[in-house]
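Notebook p. 47: complex prediction with NAP.
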Amino acid sequence: MSARVVSLTGATGFIGSVLRQQLAACGVELRALGRDKSGTAADGTQWIRGTLEDEQALVKLTHGAHVVIHCAGRVRGRDARDFDSVNVQGSKRLMDAARLSGSCERFLLMSSLAARHPTLSWYAASKSEGERQVTAAAGAVAVSIFRPTAVYGPGDRELRPLFDWLLRGWLVTLGPGHSLLSFLHVYDLVEAVMQWLDAPAMHAQTFELCDGRPQGYSWASLAGIASDVRHGPVRQATVPAALLKGLARANLALSHFTRRAPMLTPGKVNELMHPDWTCSNARISAALGWEPRILLRQALQDRLF
Ligand SMILES: NC(=O)c1ccc[n+]([C@@H]2O[C@H](COP(=O)([O-])OP(=O)(O)OC[C@H]3O[C@@H](n4cnc5c(N)ncnc54)[C@H](OP(=O)(O)O)[C@@H]3O)[C@@H](O)[C@H]2O)c1
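Predicted complex, structure tokens below:
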């Protein structure tokens, strides 16, 4: 492992916590940003208390760091500002701190495949604009951008219900019947980050990542895989688009009273309705030699979620 001091954001989240464990285990000096965390953890992680809004915390986080891995992000919100404040302004603030540290050589931004389609949702727009602003502010820091598709695995709460229901014999399809989806297991994503750390610095590289299944997954293929795994039928129920959109509008309106950040919003419905979420690992495989190892069929068989 060539990196000496690595700073990580999002280390309390789904992807970041798996990544933190792996980084801590590989012997780098690891600093992690956490809202309510401080001190040194049993695995050696040095927690820096703070958020992406707190410039002093970001200075402490990045001081003397050779690599910054930015895995914090906002995935739910009530309006565009909720997403922009973290995914755009917060990311830019972190890059500024990394560049001004004078020690940071490389920066990895955990973006999303959604950034490919910025008009779909506030989330997608913020991930796209975050990429743009981080790259523009990088100066001599080498930036790489990962755009994973939908990520699942232990600790995930968004996709888990879909897989639980599949294994019970039910598939609730959201979006058009002909949609193509793709998935990525969190262990494969973390392995890609570890290989990126070991590779020579790359400038302004954007990589899409999925589990590599050719043509991705149709809803019918999901039902077929689950049916094989559970040795029984999978019944399909479709939520009509109009109903889904109505629910999303109501959910968003309700969230302004409950003050809770909603997941189902009109923008999320636009993402669900998008017909093609497939992508290619060709660039990242060529650059890092990374190949995903876990297909959804195996994850369902081995309950790796
Ligand atoms: N999960 C997926 O399917 C998926 C797919 C593609 C891309 N991504 C991207 O991967 C990243 C991580 O996603 P995830 O699924 O692990 O999300 P998550 O479980 O919601 O975790 C988000 C992390 O970001 C931190 N965070 C949020 N706002 C922050 C702020 N203002 N200051 C500091 N930290 C903040 C959270 O800290 P707290 O715990 O303190 O709130 C948490 O550690 C995100 O950028 C997301 O866009 C995720």
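Notes: The chain has a mean pLDDT of 95. The first helix runs from residue 14 to 25.
Next step: compare against the earlier run before touching the bench.
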